[in-house]
Amino acid sequence: MKLIQTISELRTELEAFRKEGKTIGLVPTMGALHAGHASLVKRAVAENDVVVVSDFVNPTQFNDQNDLLKYPRTLEADCALLESCGATLAFAPSVEEIYPEPDTRQFSYPPLDTVMEGKFRPGHFNGVCQIVSKLFLMVEPDRAYFGEKDFQQLAIIREMVRKYPFNIQIVGCPIVREEDGLALSSRNARLTPEQRKEALQISRALFASVDFGRSRILRETKEYVEECIRRASGLELEYFEIVDGNTLQPVNAWDESNYIVGCMAAYCGDVRLIDNIKYKG
Predict the structure, then answer these.
(1) Closest Cα partner for 240 from 271, 279, 198?
(2) 201 to 2, 268, 275: CA distances (angstroms)
(3) To bridge 61 with a disulfide, which of 30, 80, 99, 127 should be the other Cys (CB 3.0-4.6 Å)?
(4) Catalytic residue selected from 34, 37, 190, 272
C-alpha cells in the first residue's frame, strides 16, 4: 500500500491504473479507523482492482469546533489497518491541499437534509457533500463505499450522485457492531469505560423495540425507545425518529411504507453517538 498526500500524486497513480483498464473503488473516511471501516475496505477490495481510502478529517462538516478539535487522528495505525485489508492507496491530504481556498458551493437536497442530523447539525451535510464531491472528482471511482450507520448521509450522497453528473455506483454496507451490540464509531474512543457501558443502552433499546413493535402501533414503539433512553443513566436523547427509509420523512403507521428505519442521536457525556435499526425492508 502507498500513502499519498497530494492531489497531483493521487491523479498520477490513478491515471496509470486506468490505462491498464483497472476498476477503482473509493472508501471515504475521516480516519480513526476501526473494524467497521475495515469491512468497507475489504468489500471494496473484493469488488475492485484498485482501492483508494481517503483519511481526512473534513473541517467543513463540523458545526461544533470543539468536536473537530477532539476528533481522534491516528494516521499511523490507520495505515497499518488499511495495508492489512489490502487497500492500494491511502490518501491523507492536509486541509490546505483540499481547501486551498474556501469552498463556497452549496448542496441542498430537501427534505432529505432538513430532518434529524440536518435539523440538529446545520451545515453538516453541506460539508459532507463538499468533501465527497471533491473526492469523487479527484478519484473518479467506479464504486464508492459508505456505512449504513450514517444512514441519512448515505441517502443524501445517493441523491447527490443522482443530481450531479457522477457515474459512480454507491454501495451501502451494513452496520458493524461490537459483540455486545454497540455500533462501531471512531467517537467510541472518547468514551470512558463507564460511558462505554452506558452507551450500550442505545443499541439495546433499538433491538428491544423491534420485538416490541411487532405487537404495538408505531407511536407506542417510538415512545418506548424514547422512554428507554430517558431512563438510561448517562444518556441524553437528542432525537429518535421512525422514518421511511427512502424519503427520511416520519411515518405514523407500520403500513405506510415497506421500508421503515428508526434513527437515533444521543449524547453520552459530551460524546455524540448515532445508531439506527431497520423495522421493515
Answers:
(1) 279
(2) 40, 10, 11
(3) 127
(4) 37
CB atoms within 10 A of CB 81: 18
Report pLDDT digits (tens) over 31-64: 999 999 999 999 999 999 999 999 999 999 998 8
Q: Rounded to an integer, what is the distance from CA 131 to the centroid of its chain?
A: 13
State the DSSP string of 54-85: EE---GGG-S-HHHHHHS---HHHHHHHHHHH
- For the record, the C-alpha cell of 104 comes out as 463556497
| Residues 254 and 247 sit within 8 Å (Cβ to Cβ) | no
To the query of whether residue 37 is one of the catalytic residues in this protein, the response is yes
Q: pTM of the predicted model, to two decimals? A: 0.96
Please state the length of the chain: 281
Q: Which three cell numbers, joined as nine digits, stand for 279? A: 423495522
> From the DSSP assignment, how many helices (H) and strands (E) are in the chain?
10, 9
Cα–Cα distance between 93 and 58 in angstroms, integer? 10
Are 161 and 128 spatial neighbours (Cβ–Cβ below 8 Å)?
Answer: no
Angle between helices 75-85 and 35-47 (to 10 degrees): 40
Name all domains of the chain by residue range, CATH numbers in brackets.
Answer: 2-173 (3.40.50.620), 186-276 (3.30.1300.10)
| C-alpha cell, 229 | 433512553
Which pLDDT belongs to residue 63?
Answer: 87
Residue 159 CB: number of other CB atoms within 10 A?
16
Cis ω for the linkage preceding 165 (within 30 of 0): no
What's the grid cell of residue 267? 449524547
CA Rg, the chain, in Å? 19
Measure CA 219 to chain center: 27
User: Which residues face 146 on adjacent strands?
Assistant: 172
| Phi/psi at 174 (5° precision) | -60, 155
